[in-house]
Amino acid sequence: MTNLNQMELQNLRHLIGAHGTIANKLDDMAQQCQDPNISQMLKTDANDARQSKQKLMTFLQ
Asked: Model-level pTM?
């Protein structure tokens, strides 16, 4: 694990949580969307947010 101070750890946890929330919201919007192109774009963005969350979580190991 990288040596993180308390502030960095707190910010990292905040970012990880935010990316998870964003992914869930984008999934919900994609399900409600009538336009298939926009729905696909939202799903892609949700997956990107999940990937970013996973990358950020590597700093906790």
From this structure: 0.87
Q: What residues have CB less than 8 Å from 5, skipping those under 6 apart?
A: none
Amino acid at 5: N
Give just the sign of the alpha carbon dihedral 9, 10, 11, 12: positive
Tokens 């935010």 found at: 18
Stretch 31-58: mean pLDDT: 97
Q: Which of 6, 3, 17 is nearest to 57 (CA)?
A: 17
Q: Which residues contact 46 (CB under 8 A, 6 or more apart)?
A: 22, 23, 24, 26, 27, 30
Tell me which amino acid residue 25 is.
K
Write the CB contacts of 22 (distance below 8 Å, at least 6 apart in sequence): 46, 49
